[in-house]
Amino acid sequence: MTTYTKFKEYIWLVNTIRRAGRITLAEINERWMQTEMSGGVELARAIR
Q: Which secondary structure element, helix H or strand E, spans residue 10, and what is its range?
């Protein structure tokens, strides 16, 4: 995964949380799965 791709994912995550205010991991994953960036893979709970 390129640095650009990872950066784009982080920006998406920050914007999603900011817009929602309070949001659960399950809700984030639901929204994430609707994006093309997900590639059909859920977000990991921890960064590796």
A: helix 3-20
Q: Please give the span between the terminal C-alpha atoms of the chain, in angstroms, as a whole number.
A: 12
Q: What is the pLDDT of residues 1-25, one digit of tens each?
A: 799 999 999 999 999 999 999 999 9
pTM for this predicted structure: 0.83
Helix axes of 25-33 and 3-20: crossing angle, nearest 10 degrees = 120
Q: What was the pLDDT predicted at 48?
A: 62
CA atoms within 13 A on the CB side of 23: 17
DSSP 8-state symbol, 47: -
Nearest CA to 32 out of 24, 18, 23, 43 is that of: 43
